[in-house]
Amino acid sequence: MSTQVEIGLNAVIIAVTDKEPRLLTVNWDRQFSLEAYDQLRPPPSTLNAIPFGPLDPSADRTLELALRGWVKKQTGLELDYVEQLYTFGDRNRDPRERYGGKRSISVAYLALVQENETFDIAQARWRNIYDFFPWEDWRTGAPEIIQAVIAPALEAWVEQGVSQKVRRQRRERIDMTFGLGDAGWDNYRVLDRYELLYEIEVAFEAQWDRACQQKTLPPPHQHNHFGCPMILDHRRILAAALGRIRGKLKYRPLVFDLLPSLFTLSQLQHVVEALAGLPLHKQNFRRFVEKAGLVESTGQMDTQTGGRPAALFRFRRDVLTEHQSPGVGLPVTIPQKNT
Amino acid sequence: MSTQVEIGLNAVIIAVTDKEPRLLTVNWDRQFSLEAYDQLRPPPSTLNAIPFGPLDPSADRTLELALRGWVKKQTGLELDYVEQLYTFGDRNRDPRERYGGKRSISVAYLALVQENETFDIAQARWRNIYDFFPWEDWRTGAPEIIQAVIAPALEAWVEQGVSQKVRRQRRERIDMTFGLGDAGWDNYRVLDRYELLYEIEVAFEAQWDRACQQKTLPPPHQHNHFGCPMILDHRRILAAALGRIRGKLKYRPLVFDLLPSLFTLSQLQHVVEALAGLPLHKQNFRRFVEKAGLVESTGQMDTQTGGRPAALFRFRRDVLTEHQSPGVGLPVTIPQKNT
DNA sequence: TCAAAAGTGTTATCCTTACACCCATGT
DNA sequence: ACATGGGTGTAAGGATAACACTTTTGA
Hints:
The structure is a homodimer. In chain A, helix 3 runs antiparallel to helix 4. In chain A, a hairpin with a 2-residue loop joins strand 1 and strand 2. The longest helix of chain A is centred in the middle third of the chain and has 16 residues. Helices cover 32% and strands 19% of the residues of chain A. The first copy, chain A, has 9 helices and 10 strands. Chain A has 3 domains: 138 residues, Alpha-Beta Complex (Nucleoside Triphosphate Pyrophosphohydrolase), CATH 3.90.79.10; 35 residues, no CATH class; 73 residues, Winged helix-like DNA-binding domain superfamily/Winged helix DNA-binding domain (Arc Repressor Mutant, subunit A, Orthogonal Bundle). Chain A is globular, with a radius of gyration of 22 Å. The N and C termini of chain A lie far apart (64 Å). Chain A is of the alpha+beta class. At the A-B interface, strand 1, strand 5, strand 6, helix 4 and helix 9 of A face strand 1, strand 5, strand 6, helix 5 and helix 10 of B. Chain A binds a DNA duplex through helix 9.
């Protein structure tokens, strides 16, 4: 009696332009086609989705090649940096499963590109990542939305706890994930925060999923204070991707593929800031870059900066083959072997 | 014409006992049953495999629950800490695919347990992880096997490069992955190293896979200087797991689930050393633990140490809800918003 | 001349790394 | 008493975090 399985591949394709991190989105309706379901819930054609493609188990040699293949075909983009993110396989992650659809397992990948690359799918569109997570952008200080809207919602949820103990646990959790109380903000806990908002049912997807579960008619999708919703679990996937990027930024030169081959140090800083969602200290950032040996100066200058011209740098090819910076990690002492 | 797909779940279950990291292995033949293939290649019943279970798409609510379920059923182990590792989906990762088997996609999970937990599968067995990767244990200094056997094999491969350029690239690669030349040893590059040994065909699995590819009879499995082989791509999965553990050890308290609730600081250090494959400086390790606030002292003492009695500690429950240690990462400055 | 952005110097403080040494128990 | 493992002090050097300041362009 085991249901059929379908393997899907999701591509979280990210670029940074004009100091903003952007996600390549497509319209959901292109991929929506299960009659039983469609008649009940007409596909919301305005809704954002992460690009998606199937795995052809007989043709595709590897998952990553399959992904590169259909991304190229659908959008014209030749992906460069690609890494596997996570595999999502909860039952009913696609509500069509409830109406006779196959069980859908999705392997999500993260890709970093330059936005200026050409692509040619009419319904695809770059969107600012912070449209989906307005509370994640701390570059100009703590977002007002947290104090104004999110914290009260979280408080209400804490108060609804059935016992003292539950309420205390909830309090701890909201303090930690959103850096309330006297806790600090951890920029990489993107997924924890999204999942909390989903759990307390202020993320729109939670309401939609609940309706599907009860087989009642879901409310129309809407953009509320808790960010622009996406179809299915795509916002969860995006949250996982952003968290991964933020975690890796600290010790891996991910920004490589997001910048042109020549760039100024400010451009570099803006890209990192856009992704980290945090403002960086200019000089200390430069020291950081210098210590990591990330860049080397070309003699050239960029005079289009609007102020004093900036020196142009390029990445040092060999950072990728280099070793971890010391001072990060465990206190190792390797003994000499005397033979 | 799309072939059928089968979703598998692999559990890399790891414990540390007697200062050695151990992997729960099972015998392959329990799960081996495709006639066309079996007749050609009788299953090598002595071979190690990582525990494996199928996903029942109609019954299992989530991948992780499915995994916990069959691990419990097969071995009696109740897993505590579980994390998704990676999804392996290369075509022919299971050679039976060539003989009419389904395409096999495997989602690998990492689980950490205490070895003293009971389990009751007759054919399961704990094995020292370094049986599979003898070159990864640097606790008593650089393993002799590297200079004696591995480095020469790598050198030979470099020399076989068709051009100057290829030879230089290969040299760079071996220097980086194995810390030859003047480069240092990066303990977390476990997968890179295994994949290199596979690529140059000294890892036994490479020879087996090549034979399968040519549909000739593979040589009998054997333990050579390049570590004890495993079935299919299981050694690759294990390498990914060990690399993940080593990477995380530096900034996450993974050791939680590997130790009894009360332990001495030396025990803690030995567990970390066993997994990291590196010897640690005693006092600096203690400072590290203290700074991270990992433990709190109970008044109790352990007198069974063979020397001066040691103070017993327990983990601080709230480390999990705490924030990143400062000094790790980007130079952030969050401005105050004046309203 | 002034706004805008690039780029530099200099501290106090904390963390890392590396030493060498003392303590409490069982045999 | 001595082997065994537990536990501590301290100082040099380096990295971080926080200051404020100078330089070069375009409008």
